[in-house]
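Margin note: ligand = threonylcarbamoyladenylate.
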Amino acid sequence: MNEVTTRTLPADTAGLAAAARVLSDGGLVAVPTETVYGLGVDARNSDAVARLYAAKGRPSFNPLIVHVATIGQAEKYVEFDDMSRALAQAFWPGALTLVLPLRTDAGISPLVTAGLDTLAVRVPDHVLAQGVLAAFDGPIAAPSANPSGQVSPTKFSHVADHMTGLIDAIVDGGECAVGVESTILSTQPVPTLLRAGGIPTEAIEAMLGCDLAQAGDAAAPTSPGQLVSHYAPKGCVRLNAQSVEAGEMMLGFGAVDAPVNLSPSANLIEAAANLFDALHRLNALGADKIAVSPIPDHGLGRAINDRLRRAAAPR
Ligand code: TXA
Ligand code: MG
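Resulting structure:
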């Protein structure tokens, strides 16, 4: 792919208008959301979506999430059932993605859905993501703004370090508050968790009054493109480590002696917000082997452990 000039856009009205122009022109612009930075394109423009897959080096069988401003906008692209509508009303704007039947008149590029008859949609809870949606006034397909398989970006510098020369622009919008990607849910044929994420599973189960099935359970739908090895730092990763072994660098959680600690006070919300920056920092420190403290598997800990398991998976 030819090198492109990557512009930095300010987090103001002029910057948001420039980001919207990039999208209208079929370009690629990275925008912060409350979860991670997304790499946005016009979801109706197949040429733009093809450029997006190329810039990320992403397998084209891995479909994208479409971001819209409101539930009303989402209705233009997907069919809501009663349960999905209740979930959207409870959790949008926010870190919940719903996989719903694609409307036949949606006009979304088939590259976005990788040819499926469902579409993943969410309404982001971030003033800059909402600002770009308002200025563009259309559906924005956006995966995380990192090269496929690598650590997701939660700061402007993470995007600039890895995507400069590959994308048209980056909105410089500070740090992402949640720090892990959205929770992905399908309600059909049974309510199913497709990816643990920024909205804790327990909150969704409490709202629905039932347990969620897991992708892979009998009768549950699956999510294509959930890569086993993902979020991978340069070093290899060992999970549930009580102490460091020779040559390892510790990624701590709680009161442990570690050069990088997700949350010294063992707070899972803080740990999620710090997770990807911690992996970027361990890369910068040249960590060849990373030993990770045990992380409790509830609340945001489920999303953190999901990402760490993929970071530790054989590549
Ligand atoms: O928080 C997030 O979700 C971020 C921000 C930018 O919104 N986006 C994000 O996108 O994490 P990405 O591309 O890294 O992950 C999207 C996941 C894919 O792994 C894919 O499996 C799933 O969403 N997905 C997309 N469309 C789907 C569909 N129709 N059915 C099932 N899973 C789908
Ligand atoms: Mg991603």
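The CA atoms of residues 142 and 270 lie 25 Å apart.
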